[in-house]
Amino acid sequence: MKPETWHREELYKDVWEQPLTKLQTKYGVSNVAIGKACRKLKVPLPGRGYWARLAAGHKVKKMPLPEFKEAPVVHRMKTEATPKPTADSSDPELALIAKVKSQPLGLRMEQHKLVESSAGLLRRAKTDEYGRTAPTSERPCLDIRVSKELLNGALTLMNTVVFALEDKACPVKIEQGSTSAHIFGQDIKFAIREDLRVKESRKAQGLPHTYERSGNLIFEISAYAEGCRKRWADGKTQRVETILSDCVAGLMLVARTVRIWSEGIKRRQEEWERQARERAEYKRLSEELDGWLAGWQKAKQIREFVAAVTKVCVADGEPTNPDSPRGQWIAWALRQADAFDPLVANEDPSEEME
Length: 354
Fold this sequence. Notes:
Blueprint: E1 3-5, H1 8-15, H2 24-27, H3 31-40, H4 50-55, E2 75-77, H5 92-102, H6 113-124, E3 144-145, H7 151-167, E4 172-175, E5 178-183, E6 186-200, E7 210-222, E8 231-233, H8 244-316, H9 325-340
Helix pairs in contact: 5-8, 6-7, 7-8, 8-9
């Protein structure tokens, strides 16, 4: 996965030709990431209702691309789309996930030890501002946040999910404030909550909405996994209890996606570290070569100078034999040259003449 650069003009053309959700495949990132890139590059986006009005044949206005002289260079990390699990998949993990999803889960009445240890804590737990259980952070407890009226049902759903996961060799653990399953080498957090709905809209007053309990349960997964579903909720045509196999399969798909993403990050990190080592070694070798060249040049200059001094001494009749003062100096200077010369067994070039 190599970083790719956003092209401002191309991005502007694309976002006005089709909704962001349809551009995810082209750019390999989520529609949220595309929207963030547009804001960074000052690319205007169609407003709310634009595509509906366009589809209905109404006249719509396209905002021009403003000038942006110092536009930043924005990169994206393009990822492969998350493959859909199928029973005939050549990937054993995807085949297993498809099998789990295809087998409906009946509610388990036998109480799991984690549910048994959490039930009392949840029944005695304080409630939040909406009247949902707020498990204490002092003792490990299943992450269930529902009204007391829905608690028994939520415990049954969680009980069924925990048993189903452990049947697939995916142990579940509870900690202070969280529940997670160890799947494909990853710890994935999940919870059952009671959804909220808007009680009073105060948008006109510029104030935040007020909310109340909806009476509907939701199964949530807490993990970053691009392209994976992470939320299942009670609705008009379905209840969470009838799609628990989807929830378990969803947990497994998220775990697989997180692992693949983590492995990709690890590979990129290892590659960056390898390149950093190569740069450091290149720098070391370059500095070593520069040092050798400098020493070799200095040794050459010393020898040339010694030769010139010897020539002058001979012309002036000054003795240069090894026992003479000048001869001793010449010997010392040549040892200095050898010390600087990388092609000669080195001695300390700061050695003083005896």
